[in-house]
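My current task is to audit a protein record that another person submitted. Alongside the sequence sits a line of tokens, each denoting a local backbone shape. Please read both lines and tell me whether the tokens look consistent with the sequence. Do not assume that whoever made the record got everything right. Thanks in advance; the entry in question is below.
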Amino acid sequence: MDMSGNSPRITVIGTGYLGLTHAVCLADLGFQVLAIDVDTEKLAKAAAGQAPFFEPGLEPLLGKNIDSGRLRFTTSFAEIGAFGDVHFLCVGTPEGEAGQADLSFVYAAADALAPYLTSECLIVGKSTVPARHGRC
């Protein structure tokens, strides 16, 4: 991690509802953010300032932060690994047949990122999980 007092550079892996909103808000707080997705069509829309879903007020903030240079997009895990001090895994965790969270996308994202990590960093899981049924 950057110990010089500079803000950490942040990556967001997954640009769905959770990831894109998170990336835009972090960029709007002043962080340098690089976001990645395997869905190139969704990524191209986001890079053009168009949210692939409706969230009130998101598109103006998306455009503002792209224009400022604080928010960028890529399809390269090598670029993500070299860029980030903090990596947020914001990929889907759909509900499986028995109601459990399917973590295969989380594992796949971590596996894709791991070979490109060359310095100390923080990896944060930030994905929605299905509510548990029955007793906690």
